[in-house]
Structures are given as structure tokens and as C-alpha cells.
Amino acid sequence: MLRLKNINTYYGKVHALKNVSLHLGEGEIVTLIGANGAGKTTILNSISGVTPASAGEIIFSKENIASLSPDKIVQLGISQVPEGRQVFKPLSVEDNLELGAYLRYRNRESRTSIHKDMNEVFTLFPRLEERRKQLAGTMSGGEQQMLAIGRALMAKPKMLLLDEPSMGLAPLVVQEIFRVLEQLRQEHGTTILLVEQNAKAALKLADRGYVMETGKVILEGLANELLENAEVKRAYLGKDKKEMWER
Amino acid sequence: MQLDQILQYTLSGLSTGAIYALIGIGFSIIYNATGIINFAQGEFVMLGGLFTLTGLQLLHLPLWASVPFSITATTVIGILFERLAIRPLRQPTPLNLVIITIGCSILIRGLAMLFWGKDTHAIQSFSGDNPIAIGGATILPQHIWILVVTLIIIAINKFYFYHTISGKAMRACSYNRRAAGLVGIDVRRMVLFSFIISSAMGAVAGIIVAPLTMTAYDVGVMLGLKGFCAAIIGGMSSGISTVIGGLILGVLESLGAGLISSGYKDAIAFIILLLILFIRPQGLFGKADSERV
After folding, report:
1. Domain for residue A91, yes or no?
2. Does some domain include residue B164?
3. Which residue, A75, A145, A198, B245, is the most exposed by fewest CB within 10 angstroms?
4. Distance from CA of B37 to the nearest CA of A (A)
5. Domain of B217?
6. Contact B181 A80 (CB under 8 A)
């Protein structure tokens, strides 16, 4: 469904992605793990057209989307839930969700079908419905994350890119969010590319995973294999914790 | 006697203030959508007045047709401005943008001087010049036009920004451009929109004020700065606080000119501007940025 072929992306002079290739099949949940600065977010932003790749191909449904602008990419069915939620804080929950469907409004889709999808988001995250008139910026981090996901879903994406949805959230909230991701795949066949620091939780949810280091993919495989992989265990599942205690 | 005078100054201050408010909102809309302080905003005001003059005198249109003609013509200039001067910029740093808008403002003023000459032009009032007595003060029908038109424009603005998807999208761009792009909002299109709205509003301000103050190729400088001042008092909001900012400015200016000396009229606006920038740079009603993370 999505295939990256030898992507190279630069931030100014920094070579952030070096010949990265990866693919996602339809309905798959794939996770990208790796340390800070490994280039995970850059991959998502290159797919979304925010920091376009300077070389390489990004093929989505047989079309090269590498040079398209972010709004065209949303139009094609790839929505990103950015790192740190990035909800529109001074707008209400409802307005945030409406804006998620911005392109559908512009394409003159009927309001009833858009509202139907909003209700679906409310079924996934009942807490958003309780707070539909509240300003997004006044909600807790977990609720903002739910809103960010809901907003992305309002575009009816075929594929969802999530950047660190668990960042700074309580374990229970993380569980709820991961449960929703699983539900999305089962009920809608949504393909999901998940960037996570929380490698363990991500690998438990995902079908496959890629491990990144300094702008390169250094390892790929089935999620349960990666969970058992000695190198991954040392670098991303165990050592993280150890480092935390040692310092 | 003294009280009547104060009432008189307040009333005329309110209508000048309404003009400042309209211009100030024009500043805020572009600023919020793009981060640019458009120093050419005052030129839109000047163009509004002068294009009306062209409609009336050169094309011999009636007033009701000259007004839309003028708004359209000014908006076209606003679009050209965005397309030719703002959009092609590769690295839009704030300094570059400020210099560009100042440059464009000088260019537009220069062209206006070539086209309309250096004279000051009078434009007929919309509905006569018979003064209306209010208490011990009198106002002109044009003052009422100014207040009513300003109210209508503000109401339309409010509706657009709070109740239409395109208005909400524009606000979204001002709050978080990156996220706006990620939900599929074409940010550059919104920038163009903001120039369209601001130039049209500037034109309206220029049109309704022209019968009172007359118009010339260089009225945009002072009106633009006063509008900027209103926007600063209002904390660069495109809503009610800039309106209040404009009204405060207009009334203080009028009272100051009447009670102290008319020589200080412009100085008052800039003293207020400097005081606000020193003491409350977030605007009179703005809260210092505090966000819950």
C-alpha cells in the first residue's frame, strides 16, 4: 500500500534520512522504533509532505507522492497525528474535529455524513463527546491525544501515521489509545504506521517493526521476533530503563 | 458648555475610532494568518477612497456602484500584492517581510500619486451634510454611516471566523500552521484569503471616511499607523478587542486635540502606541501566553 524507496531527507544541511526503504501492506500495523534523533519523525514528515524527501520515491497506491504538498497527501488518504498532539488549542473539540474534515467540506461532501463520522469518533472516545464544547487547550494530555487522533480520523484516512501517541501519558490512557488503534484496524482496515519511544508496547501492538538508528533502518522484522531479538532487547527494551536508573 | 464639548469630541472620536478599528482588524487578520505586519495596509485604505473617486468622476458611476467598484479594485491590488510580493519569497523571515511590505507601500503610494496626482480630493457624503443634534453636540450623517458600516463589517467578520469552515481554518492556521497543513488546509491559500479580506476591509474604511476627511495619495500613511496602533492596543486580535482599541484611540485623540491642542492629535496616538508596547505588549486585554501542556 505504501512503499518508501531509498528516501533521503535533509533538514538544512543535516542528512536526516539516509536511503531509507520500508513498506506497509494494507491493514497492517507497522511500528518504527529507535532512539531520539534516529529519524522516525522525519520519515512521517516526509510521507506527509511536511519535510519533502530530496531523493527517492514514496509510492502510495501506485502513485509517487514524494513531491506532493501536505494537503494533497491528506486528500489521497494519509493523515498524520503529529508529535505532541498539536491540537488547535483555542478552538473547541467540535471545531477541531470539523477541521479534520476540512477537505471533505471543501469537496462538498454532505454534512450528514461528516457528522456521522464525528459521532463515530465520539463512540471511539466517549470522553471527547462529554467535552465537545470545551476548548481543546484546556483538556488533559490524554484527551488532547484522543482529539488529535479523532481529528485525523475525520479525514477518513486509509492510512494513519502516528507520532509518539504515548508521549507523556499515563499507562492507562496509553492502553486506551492502543486499544482504539487495534479497533480501527479491525473495524475499518486502517493501515497504521506508528512511531514510538515505548518500543515494548508498540511491538506488542504491531505486526512488523523497523528499528532505526542515525537516519538509517538497521533492522526489520516481525514484531514478535523483534521483541525477542537480543540486540533490540539490549538497545530499546532493557537499556532504556537501565540508563534511566543509572543517571 | 464644557460637557457639551466633551460629548462632541467623544462622538466624533468614536467614528474616527471605528475607522481605526477597521484598519486595525485588517492588520490583525493578515498578521494572524501569516505572521506578517502588513505595513501596506494603510495603502488599501487610500486606494479605497481614490478608486471611489475614479468611479464617481471618471467613470460617472453613481455612488452605490462606485463603492463596490472601489472595493473590487482594491481587492485585486491586494491579490496582486500577495501573489507578486509575498508568495514568491523563498525564505520569508519576518525582517524580509517587513521590508517588502514597506517597499510595496511606498510603491503603491508612488503609483497612486502618478495616477491621481498630488491634490486632495473631496468625495460626496453618502446622505447629505445636514447635522444631527445629539444632546448639546452635533454629528453628521456620515458619522452614522461609519458606525453602522463598521458594526456590520465586524458582525460579518465574527460570523466568518466563528461559524464557517473556511473562517475556522484560517484561525487554525494562525494557532498552529503545521497542524493546519496536516489536516489538509492549504496554508498558502489561506494567506491569499487573508489578503483578500484585509484589502477589502481597508477599502471599506477608506471609502466611508473619505467624505469626512477628504482623500489623497498619502492618507494611507497616517491612517495605517493609527490602525496599527489600534491593533496593538487590541493585542493583534481580529475581534472585539481591536475594535475597542480603535475606539479608545479615536476618543482619546479627539479629546486630546479638542481639550489640549489639535497640534498633539497624532502625537497622542503614538504615545499610546509606545506606552502599550512598553507596558503591555500583549495588548490591553491580552493574557500573557500561558498554555497547558
Report:
1. no
2. yes
3. A75
4. 22
5. 10-116+141-279
6. no
Q: What is this structure's pTM?
A: 0.86
Do the domain assignments include residue B135?
A: no
CB within 8 Å: A95 and B168 = yes
Nearest Cβ partner for B172 among A48, A69, A88: A88
Selecting from B171, B183, B186 the residue whose C-beta is nearest the C-beta of A155 gives: B183
For residue B110, tell me if it sits in a domain. yes
The count of domains in chain A is 1
Report the percent of chain B where pLDDT is more than 90. Answer: 66
Q: How many CB pairs under 8 A join A and B?
A: 73
Task: Name every chain B residue with its beta carbon within 8 A of the beta carbon of A89.
Answer: 175-176, 291
pLDDT at position A239 is 53
Q: How far is A160 from chain B (nearest CA, A)?
A: 12
Would you say residue A216 lies in a domain? yes
What pLDDT digit, counting tens, does each position of B30-60 carry?
A: 988 888 899 999 999 999 999 999 999 999 9
B130 in a structural domain: no
Nearest neighbour of A70 by CB, restricted to B176, B181, B293: B181
| Residues on chain B touching A95 (C-beta within 8 angstroms) | 168
Return the HEC string of chain B.
CHHHHHHHHHHHHHHHHHHHHHHHHHHHHHHHHHCCCCCCHHHHHHHHHHHHHHHHHHCCCCHHHHHHHHHHHHHHHHHHHHHHHHCCCCCCCHHHHHHHHHHHHHHHHHHHHHHHCCCCECCCCCCCCCCEEECCEEECHHHHHHHHHHHHHHHHHHHHHHHCHHHHHHHHHHHCHHHHHHCCCCHHHHHHHHHHHHHHHHHHHHHHHHHHHCECCCHHHHHHHHHHHHHHHCCCCCCHHHHHHHHHHHHHHHHHHHHHCHHHHHHHHHHHHHHHHHHCCCCCCCCCCCCCC
Cβ distance A88 to B175 less than 8 Å, yes or no, reads yes
Establish if A236 belongs to a structural domain. yes
